[in-house]
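Our preliminary data section would be incomplete without showing what the modeling component actually yields. Below, a chain of 464 amino acids is followed by its predicted structure, encoded as tokens that our downstream tools consume directly.
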Amino acid sequence: MNKDYSILIIDDEQSQREVLNGYLLKKGYKTFTASSGSEGITLTQNEQIDIILSDYKMPDKTGLEILEEVKNINPEICFVLITAYGTIENAVKAMRLGAYDYLTKPIDLDELDLLLEKIIENKNLKSEVNYLKQQLRDKFKIDSFISTSPKMQEVLSVAARASESKATVLITGESGTGKEVLAKSIHYISPRKEKPFIAVNVPALPETLLESELFGHEKGAFTGADKTRTGRFELANKGTLFLDEIGDIPMNLQVKLLRVLQEHKIERLGSNESINIDVRVIAATHQNLEQKIKDGTFREDLFYRLNVISIHIPPLRKRKEDILPLIEHFIKKYSVENEKPQLELSKEALDILIKYNYPGNVRELENIMERAVVLSRHNIITVNDLPSAVKGFKTESDPILDENKSLTEQVEALEKKLIYDALTKANGNQSLAGRMLGITERNLRYKMQKYGIKNTNLKIHNQK
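Predicted structure:
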């Protein structure tokens, strides 16, 4: 849209400036004018300029001198040289210095229109290419997931099959499990992989701003809307829009989102004009949307629109098989980033990391390993390199239900661990361990016999 582009006209002839300025304003461009090269340079430094139309011959500077200074200020500005002398020599030199093109006086306005349309088209294309390059620097694929557990293999299998379709996907799971990583993986192995992946963190934006972010707005739609804004749905056209924490979307926006999913059209704030879009929506949440439906805070019809393909990522504590390969991956990654030799992990540190509960899931494990790599003084990561919260973790403080075991079996397993830990802390002293557990020494001996706990083994363990 023309109104999104600003043009600076540099010409010492007032009549030429006025003619070009009036014409471009009617075409919807934002314009600036300068009567000298020095004034034009100052405007370029102080204003956001997209295109410069500059006369070649002026009293203080030539067009080529202005071009050189402009490229030093902002090489992204498109510079068009205007000359009455139209020599090939000047034109070639200008192009070599980075001019986009040149026009000869008197200016043919139809030729100017075509040139500006070409510049804008190229700018839009360049912007999209740069955006895609940025995305592809950290390109995600399904194999980005470091996983050996059967539960995650099933997740990845569903994601791979879902990627080939246009269907909406709802990804559920606790914070830190990798919902956005999975969404990117689906996008980058899909037919839409060359188009944008746009992410919106729903709870991070206030309700009024969220509506504008999603659907865009026209100039003057509300106080502070000083220019037209393209919404995330438009930016994601032909690509994928990821709505993170969709459970926090306000009710009034749920209605608009449902309409978009049904009709594949949006309306910017302040406009009655419908814009057709082709966007694949992937949503994610750590909340129970079915419960929110019962509570009246989430629309049931929107839930079914989003939940065409449902993928649940289990927490890390439910797939402990993945902890070791993830640890190895993060050690390698952060050893390289911090220019350290490939570090190893002590058995004691590994034991603690395997037993830890990871309330922050994979994100927390990654932070733990980055910290350990950075703080490690030697080539081996030890228990001392782990955070105190991890070192002090006790599995009995947060027992995990195992659906495959009865209540009796799980209680016995917990009791056995408590006894073992107490005897270990007491260095095998049964009387002290009994007091720590709040039972008699006789009762403790009975339970040790019941569970096959050998105190001699504990003493040997503590002597190592």
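The longest helix spans residues 109-137. Confidence is low (pLDDT under 50) at residues 132-141, 395-400, 456-464. Preliminary results of this kind motivate Aim 1 of the renewal.
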